[in-house]
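sanity check this record:
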Amino acid sequence: MSHGILLELTDVCKRYDSPGEAEPLTVLKGVTLQVASGDSVAILGPSGSGKSTLLNIIGSLDHATSGCVSLEGRDLTELDEKQLATIRNREIGFVFQLHHLLPQCTVLENVLVPTLAGSTAIPRDKTEGRARRLLERVGMGHRLMHRPGQLSGGERQRVAVVRALINQPKLLLADEPTGSLDKEASENLAQLLVELKREEGIALIVVTHAQHLARRMDRVFELVDGRLIPLQTEEN
């Protein structure tokens, strides 16, 4: 794990108005977390505990009711939607339980989709080369022209991971990335995420029910009653 704080959450709260209820529903209660560049964090918790809400706030897909979310010292809560969209595209990669690949596009085309939205850190003439290298790295180099419907669940998730990495993000967020996979594919993807995190030099935050995935992270937390509780502090 390298030094230098990449992401910092300070007293992040999230409340939703509940129709018919006098009090709003409080999902997150003063969540505070620091994540260094190169760090990996797992967040455990039962369904409905707010794990995905927390991840969406970190990735600026949702907004905190109060508190501060900083990425490299920039308070994301003070940025407008256009600025946040640029950060999401250039600096944050997302992997979800469902791959969200475009069915009409090939594997290679799917991976290149994020490079089409505005400027990126990589020159446009080099993005396809990076896509091909990453797909080769995850064992999909022979499937470039296949479409998602021709792939297994594990293969689709590997493509989704490469798509999340194509713009060289500083932070990778994964929401139940192995949740729809069988045991073997799940364990293979977990190992791949850890290896790619190290090779790309990025931070990784994973929301998961899978203990085998959580154990591979540097730190493990559980979201209990809206608060992050550390379960493991030593590095693996």
User: Anything to note?
Assistant: The mean pLDDT is 89.
